[in-house]
Amino acid sequence: MLLVASPVEAAGDRALGAYLAAECSACHQISGRSRGGIPPIIGWPEDQFVAVLDAYRSRQRDNPVMQAVAARLSRDEIAALAAYFGALTSKP
């Protein structure tokens, strides 16, 4: 039997993402600006955000800090972060 999630079920929990975002925001600027070579992550499409974290989890992308962060996040937490950061917009 094939189960397919509806769009509502597939979406991450934005409130949980906001709660989890403090660690990410320590390096990634919420303003949408890049700092010290660390890219901004706000406004990313959710599927792109999830794909990038999956690549860090599987060590296909090289960055020890991001590999460690991604490895300890659950699928639901990654989806929540994707929903939260995807909903943010740059501040002028």
Describe the structure.
- This protein is mostly helical.
- The protein has a single domain, classed as Orthogonal Bundle (Cytochrome Bc1 Complex, Chain D, domain 2), CATH 1.10.760.10.
- It is 53% helix and 0% strand.
- The protein is built from 5 helices and no strands.
- It has helices at residues 7-10, 14-25, 46-57, 64-71, 75-87.
- Helix 2 (14-25) packs across helix 5 (75-87), helix 3 packs across helix 4 (64-71) and helix 3 crosses helix 5.
- It is globular.
Through-space gap between termini: 49 Å
Mean pLDDT, to the nearest integer, reads 86
Please state roughly what percent of the residues sit in beta strands, choosing from under 5%, 5-15%, 15-25%, 25-35%, 35-45% or over 45%. under 5%
Total DSSP helices:
5
Order of helices and strands: HHHHH
Sequence stretches where pLDDT stays below 50 over 5 or more residues: 1-10
CATH fold name? Cytochrome Bc1 Complex, Chain D, domain 2
Number of DSSP-assigned strands: 0
Could you say how many structural domains there are in total? 1
User: Quick one: biggest sheet?
Assistant: none
Q: In CATH, what is the class?
A: Mainly Alpha
CATH architecture: Orthogonal Bundle
Shape: globular
Work out the radius of gyration: 13 Å
Derived structural class: mainly alpha
CATH homologous superfamily caption: Cytochrome c-like domain
